[in-house]
Amino acid sequence: MAEKVVEIKKLYYAYPDGTKALSGLDLDVFRGETLGIIGANGAGKSTLLLHLNGILRNGASDAVKVLGRDMTDKNIPFIRSRVGLVFQDPENQLFMPTVFDDVAFGPINMGMKEGDVRRAVEEALKEVDLPGFAGRSPHHLSVGEKKRAAIATVLSMKPDILVLDEPSSNLDPKHRRGLIDLLRRLPLTMIIATHDLPLLAETCSRICVMEEGRVEADGKTADILQNYPLLEDYDTGALLHISRRSTT
Ligand SMILES: Nc1ncnc2c1ncn2[C@@H]1O[C@H](COP(=O)(O)OP(=O)(O)OP(=O)(O)O)[C@@H](O)[C@H]1O
Ligand SMILES: [Mg+2]
Asked: Which DSSP string do the residues of the chain spell out, in sequence order?
């Protein structure tokens, strides 16, 4: 049986203001799979993803295990070097004076040598179609360019697990296609939260549906996307379109 790279057991999380976001969530992710996470606004998708490298923690360090390690202070630096998390809002990911510095930040922190850092940055910027952007200020990019730069900051780390929160939001059709092709090429474990169901249909082998802080359904992509009663309130128009395509 494939190795479990993420093991989450009975994960509860409430924000400091008391809002309950995760309510006893269980989830296993296996090495090499591409898992889609869908669910309505506020279902808890981003909150879940922020637990995968310890940005959010609920106190019980054994509720979330990544690459076989509990989410403890001691393990977090290792986990962060292996899990690349792209935030829903790129503004939270870009904080250096230049795009180069932002994309180099992870590799430098991981102790990569200068030449290797340069190569990793160049490759990552090429993957997201931002060649020539290294010297630009991240704050003066368009929203879609920021999103792509944020993805590059994580690709440059060459992570084992790629965690993407709404990766296609604000991308134009050409760059959305480029992203899908990239995701299909990358031989990584991936966890993708999105409302872009056609993207999931093309990239994911499995989909979890979240509702009120829990995984409500979990199955093969084609089964979930054709489960009309399950997704009735979610997006039947898109579903019809996708299920026709994925069954032909
Ligand atoms: N910083 C915060 N403080 C308090 N409550 C929050 C905070 N961030 C999110 N929440 C609440 O936690 C719940 C889950 O939010 P989350 O952002 O995880 O949802 P989501 O599934 O990612 O939604 P979306 O599809 O809009 O991205 C919601 O009820 C939301 O209002
Ligand atoms: Mg979200």
From this structure: -PPEEEEEEEEEEE-TTS-EEEEEEEEEEETT-EEEEE--TTSSHHHHHHTTTTSS--S-TTSEEETTEE--TTTHHHHHHHEEEE-SSGGGT--SSSHHHHHHHHHHHTT--HHHHHHHHHHHHHHTT-TT-TTS-GGGS-HHHHHHHHHHHHHTT--SEEEEESTTTT--HHHHHHHHHHHHH--SEEEEE-S-HHHHHHH-SEEEEEETTEEEEEEEHHHHHT-HHHHTTT-HHHHHHHHHHHH-
